[in-house]
Prior knowledge:
By secondary structure, the chain is of the alpha+beta class.
Amino acid sequence: MSTTTFLIPDMTCGHCEKTLRGAISDVLPDAAVNIDLSTHRLTVTGDAATAEEAIREAGYTPERAG
Length: 66
């Protein structure tokens, strides 16, 4: 499985983290999700396009990190 890291500037608190974990697990139930609030980074295993769409639908603005 591929791993993708997103920079999500508007992810700022524990509520954001919970919302994003839920949104991704709804569409990618087997994905591993790691979140670092201090750097605004979310790393996910699985289909990057599906994860990105779930993040956007949850109301956040992800940017793929290099």
